[in-house]
Amino acid sequence: MARTGKKTIVIQIVSTEDLEEIVDYAQKRADASGMRLTVDYAHDVGLKLNIAGPRDKINLYEHQIREFLRGEEESAS
Q1: Which pLDDT tens digit goes with each residue over 45-64?
Q2: Per-residue 3-state assignment (H helix, E strand, C coil) for the chain
């Protein structure tokens, strides 16, 4: 059985229009992986994704989120 863990991913938000899209994607990925996600946002800190679940899935989840953000940055350019 995989060990469980928690991780916080902090994302700097450049455009508030991207915020809803990022949160929707993060929630969809967490639901698909069977993990718990809580979301916090503060204008001075950014978007905080707190994820809990099996460690191997958390690592995969973080890579998926980072890849999604890279795609968003490239499409904005």
Answers
A1: 899 999 999 999 999 999 99
A2: CCCEEEEEEEECCCCHHHHHHHHHHHHHHHHHHCCEEEEEEECCCEEEEEEEEEHHHHHHHHHHHHHHHHHHHHHHC
